[in-house]
Amino acid sequence: MLFFVLSSLFSMAEAQGNPHYMTTDPAISEMLTSISMPRHMGNVSFTGASSDPAIREMLISMDMPRYAGNVPAETISGSWQLDLSEGSYIELALLQSGSAIFGKGTITNQTLSQEAFASGSVSGSSLNLEVVPESATELYAISVDISSLPYEGTYVVFQADSGLQSGTITASKNASI
Asked: E strand or H helix at 33, and its extent?
């Protein structure tokens, strides 16, 4: 019995060292096939991390295609102010890596100002952010059209204890970081 187990382990190790080895696990087999598959991007231009076909394909397979999108010529990095129709405003210092956007700032309403963290993506003329205040009781899902000034869009606030709130947003970029 011990001989059988040891010989099986040795055979597996030897097979995986073989470049023509095909695993029986369908997920691993599909991943290996996908890695060696040629990629065709057409006439779409990508910059940053999303220009690497392997990374782009990985992001799509992780259900994160938003990070593999078209990156606009305009740099998103900078200091942003987002004015919400219900009277609150969000100030963010945003950074950009390819189409990925992230940063931190503050959310201020009539009674409270608190630190906030943002992440999202940019694709073409659309800036999409998710902002969470430090209290972590709300999630602001924001979409801004950055094709022309003034930058305008919509938002939805998911509130932990009382449902949803939505409205319009006006955004402005103050300067590069």
From this structure: helix 26-36
**How many whole angstroms separate alpha carbon 30 and alpha carbon 33?**
5
The overall pTM is greater than 0.70 = no
In order, the DSSP letters of 96-132 are EETTEEEEEEEEE-SS-EEEEEEEEEEETTEEEEEEE
Q: Which domains does the chain have, with CATH numbers?
A: 2-68 (no CATH), 78-175 (2.40.128.30)
**Residue 30: its H or E element:** helix 26-36
Per-residue pLDDT of the chain in tens (177 residues, 90 and over written 9)? 555 544 554 454 454 445 444 556 666 655 555 554 443 333 333 344 445 666 656 655 555 555 555 555 568 999 999 999 999 999 999 999 888 999 999 999 989 999 999 999 988 889 999 999 999 999 999 999 999 999 999 999 999 988 889 999 999 998 655
